[in-house]
Specification:
The protein is 55% helix and 3% strand. It has 139 residues and is mainly α. The chain has a domain of 89 residues. The protein is globular.
């Protein structure tokens, strides 16, 4: 999987989580504005290049928003560029913190799956003795 595919999965998982909380404002990936896709891609890049926690994910997201002119507001309003989550991670409600934990977990799980697939295709994965591997016993 490439970073865009991982970002898409992360976005859809976040969208489902938001829906479970009663927030129906998240569009499907296909309908998401480019800034939202770019935000997901930035998060994926952060977690694929560094081993950081969910706090770093939120701090990176918040820094991107502030750099783009967003400010704290009581609710998310893309037109006014206000967002209720432009606060330090520790001040977020638990259900908002959970988004960063989930995002990080999905990135790490998909990255590990992609790496295992790459290793298998490259012939460097350890043989499982299924008869289809690359070791001498399977040849």
């Amino acid at each position: 999987m490439n970073n865009e595919q991982i970002a898409r999965v992360c976005h859809e998982v976040n969208r489902a989580y938001c829906q479970a909380l009663g927030d129906m404002s998240q569009p499907a990936w296909e309908d998401a504005p480019q800034w939202q896709k770019d935000s997901a891609l930035l998060g994926v890049k952060l977690h694929t290049e560094k081993n950081v926690g969910p706090e770093a994910s939120h701090e990176s997201w918040m820094a991107q928003k502030v750099a783009e002119g967003w400010v704290y507001g009581p609710e998310k309003n893309p037109d006014a560029k206000t967002h209720h989550c432009i606060v330090p991670f520790a001040e977020l409600p638990r259900e908002q913190q959970a988004k960063d934990f989930i995002f990080r977990a999905v990135v790490h799980a998909l990255r590990a799956t992609a790496q295992a697939e790459d290793d298998f295709l490259a012939g460097t994965q350890a043989c499982d003795l299924s008869g289809e591997g690359t070791c001498e016993a399977c040849q």
